[in-house]
Design brief:
The chain is of the alpha/beta class. It contains nine helices and six strands, in the order E-H-E-E-H-H-H-E-H-E-H-H-E-H-H. It has a six-stranded mixed beta sheet.
């Protein structure tokens, strides 16, 4: 189903169920003429925060889906971060990976691999990042994420897949 490292404590978790929640956020972002990426934060089997790309709405380039979900996490995420899981529809960029690390979220599950950002290399080569992340697992409902990207941003999809315009 996916690739990467999945911590043993997540083995019984319905990854597709929660990725569908993130995909719904991506669809909403696309419908709003934003980059179609969505994210959710899960705690104890429950969605506690949602985010989607909102660059245009806020006129701010750093309003990525993952950051918006982290910001919405509030007190629950602040106090119970050790059990949190972030689901995102595209592999996190370096900025979002850094924010996830700084929020101490130990598990990252994503749908679409991004051949440009290659955040997995940061995880593999940076001991600080590696010590914070227990799961870095991609490919969950990747085809669905690809379809949403193709629907709203086909040019950017090509870039994610090939690294060129």
């Amino acid at each position: 189903m996916g690739s990467g490292e999945l911590a043993a404590e997540l083995s019984g978790l319905d990854l597709e169920k929660f990725m569908r929640e993130a995909l719904a956020e991506a669809e909403a972002a696309g419908e709003a003429d934003e980059f179609p990426i969505g994210a959710v934060v899960i705690l104890d089997g429950e969605v506690i925060a949602r985010g989607r790309a909102r660059h245009n709405e806020y006129r701010n380039q750093i309003r990525h889906a993952e950051l918006n979900a982290l910001l919405e996490g509030g007190e629950k995420l602040f106090t119970d971060y050790k059990r949190a899981i972030l689901f995102t529809t595209v592999e996190p960029c370096p900025m979002c990976l850094g924010a996830i690390v700084m929020a101490d979220i130990p598990h990252i599950i994503f749908a679409k691999h991004d051949q440009v950002v290659l955040s997995k290399l940061s995880l593999e080569n940076n001991p600080y990042i590696r010590r914070h992340i227990k799961s870095y697992y991609g490919g969950v409902l990747e085809e669905e994420s690809t379809r949403i990207l193709a629907k709203y941003r086909p040019k950017e999809l090509k870039y994610l897949e090939k690294g060129s315009w």
